[in-house]
Write a structure and sequence with these properties.
Elements lengths: L2 H9 L2 E3 L2 E9 L2 E7 L3 H15 L6 H13 L4 H17 L9 H7 L6 H13 L4 H19 L1 E14 L1 H11 L7 E10 L3 E8 L17 H6 L3 H6 L11 H15 L2 E6 L3 E5 L9
Antiparallel strand pairs: 1-2, 2-3, 4-5, 4-8, 5-6, 6-7
């Protein structure tokens, strides 16, 4: 081989993925191709990981220990480095989540920084594997929402007069069952706002004596004229122990007896979501806006 050819060979550099081999001129007519096993990418990553462990200021106890080890010995064992690299890359991956692209429920879990181990476990699972089941998201969001509501609760203890609220039928039915009362509290007179949160009230109230447009016992729509005038149907009237009037002349006596039954119920306390209040008549209705 001529020297010019050798010079050309020496100047050539061949790369093959992460390995390269350099033609090297050793003697007049001999060129030895030395296969150099260098992984350039790995070397770069390793230096990067060492830089990150050197500058680590997080809360991971293992990484802080490895930082001390590296500062003391200038290196980590292969096993220590492998675990350190995995943890660092996982932490960086967790920071890459774009929460603006997530659903409100999932975003609440990812951004959660409270003390619920259940929600924190879900957060870790999502940040690690990038997926949660619909049931996990639902239960996680409910847990976050409950905690938010609890943290947002403010004791009000505001006494009220002349404030009447109309409730949704399902909400009223739930209160009726919970309090074991005979009447359907579609309309109630609020006597005190006890607690307010972002989404709900804890109220103290008593049954109103006004007609709510439906049967005050079963909550069904009233169809005949006499029932609409009394606010209760004949079957339910019999159930509460008051004979339903047969004519308008009996109305005053009937209303007096029904009002006594209503008074016997007295005040009761209950939680109600703000969205469950159909209408609030009175000065305190402004609180629905907060």
């Amino acid at each position: 081989m001529h020297f010019e050819e050798i010079g050309q060979t020496v100047s050539d550099l061949f790369f093959c993925q992460t390995k390269f081999f350099t033609p090297f001129y050793l003697a007049d007519n001999f060129v030895w191709h030395i296969f150099v096993l260098l992984n350039d990418t790995t070397m770069t990553n390793k230096t990067d990981i060492y830089n990150k462990i050197r500058n680590y200021n997080g809360n991971n106890d293992f990484l802080r220990k490895m930082k001390d080890t590296y500062q003391k010995w200038g290196r980590l064992t292969d096993k220590q480095f492998a675990v350190t690299e995995k943890i660092i890359l996982n932490e960086e991956r967790q920071k890459e989540v774009d929460v603006t692209t997530l659903s409100p429920s999932l975003r609440a879990i990812v951004e959660y920084n409270g003390e619920s181990t259940f929600v924190l476990d879900l957060k870790t699972k999502y940040l690690t594997y990038r997926t949660l089941s619909e049931k996990q998201i639902q239960k996680g969001y409910e847990a976050v929402d409950r905690e938010n509501q609890k943290n947002s609760q403010v004791n009000m203890n505001i006494k009220l007069v002349g404030n009447t609220i109309k409730l949704g039928r399902k909400i009223a039915e739930g209160i009726k069952k919970e309090k074991s009362i005979d009447f359907h509290p579609i309309l109630v007179d609020v006597t005190e706002v006890m607690v307010m949160s972002n989404k709900a009230f804890k109220l103290k109230a008593k049954l109103t004596k006004e007609n709510g447009g439906i049967c005050r016992c079963c909550g069904k729509t009233l169809t005949d004229e006499m029932s609409r005038m009394t606010g209760i149907g004949p079957v339910c009237s019999k159930y509460v122990g008051v004979e339903h009037p047969s004519n308008k002349a009996d109305l005053p006596q009937y209303r007096e007896e029904i009002n006594k039954k209503i008074d016997e119920v007295g005040e009761f306390e209950f939680w109600i979501p703000k969205r469950g209040i159909v209408e609030w008549k009175g000065s305190a209705g402004v609180m629905l806006k907060f």
